[in-house]
Amino acid sequence: MRHCIIVVGGYINDIFAKEFIEKERPELCIAADSGMNFFYRNKLTPDWIIGDFDSASSEALDYFGGQPDISWIRLNPVKDDTDTESAIRKAIALGAEKITLLGATGTRIDHLLGNIELLGIGLQNHIPIQIVDERNRIRMIGAGITLEKEKQFGKFVSLIPYTNVVKGLTLTGFKYPLDHYDFKGFCSLGVSNEIIAESAEIAFEEGILIVIEARD
Amino acid sequence: MRHCIIVVGGYINDIFAKEFIEKERPELCIAADSGMNFFYRNKLTPDWIIGDFDSASSEALDYFGGQPDISWIRLNPVKDDTDTESAIRKAIALGAEKITLLGATGTRIDHLLGNIELLGIGLQNHIPIQIVDERNRIRMIGAGITLEKEKQFGKFVSLIPYTNVVKGLTLTGFKYPLDHYDFKGFCSLGVSNEIIAESAEIAFEEGILIVIEARD
Questions:
Q1: Cβ-Cβ contacts under 8 Å for A79 (sequence gap 6 or more)
Q2: Which of A114, A156, A203, B204 has the fewest CB atoms within 10 Å around its CB?
Q3: Nearest to A158 among B114, B158, B216 (CB)
Q4: Chain B residues with CB-CB distance to A216 below 8 A
Q5: ipTM rounded to 2 decimals
Q6: Does the keyword field hold tRNA-binding (chains A, B) (predicted)?
Q7: C-alpha distance from B44 to closest chain A C-alpha (Å)
């Protein structure tokens, strides 16, 4: 099983998300709690529904409750982990080799930052996890990557240090290049870079980096 | 000079922002680049306008350009720092003792994370800096704080470790308490806590914590 898409209960652009799912044809779809409202609204069926269901609509709960092909995990509302974290861990247990979170952004910044933290579960398990919405593709990387200009998401590439320092950061093929720079926080240096070559390379010696491809 | 409000060019709810400014009566208002559009729309006048003006409207530029009481700093568009970082550094140079960023959230997640990084400039300079919108109040703390339930912003309090570990985190007066816990990332443990006593205390021995008070 290759790609798993988890739909979370944050902000979601239905048109973008439906097109993304149609294009990716994921082997597994999981609704995390009120993420099921997206499937209900768009006449799609998730493979799994996971949550404490404190925020799902009763219509969606009733509708999916009667369907035999859906597996359910009902979580205790008093718990340490969010529904999204449980869904990610379930996807990995089910054999996901790549995970995309949809509906993981939105106006509750604490939810967004919590979801970005969860990208680290991918690093721990050697599985790429990404958060995608119509303006952003967010990843967390522990080793260098190459971005091809033709395939990039949006116009801008921004880098945010996740660890206190990202050592020896070298950027090539970017408008603002860097050469073995020790990249630390408390500054806006990494925001809104652009790829100017056919491909751009992000390399570093130590640390973890958040990579955001974005468009206005 | 006490409170400085910096309006940034991200998402802004005019009604919320105007009420916030009226209530706070800041001694200093700075427009960072297209943050000036907010002042123009709402017939308010900033004290300083700082930016490379690649995203400000020509109407706002013309309108404020003719006003003698506004100080301007025109930045080079090819620069390492964002307009927001320059505005924060200017506010500190002008003697700000507290800084609030409005318009610092929105749909470009890289801009948001970049702005959250800038909260660390407050820690370095011993000045509280906060990002506020109608759903979130975001702070970065290097030492313990007390939150009074009556004065809290919204219903939820979420904690995100900024340093790789926040050592010995103790939460009292919260629905989900902690006792000398070494709080690390890659999990959603700190999201959506709630204050259940008259006041709640966040204490820790080492590290930097992001505190988000939020409402749905």
A1: A52
A2: A203
A3: B114
A4: 108
A5: 0.96
A6: no
A7: 26
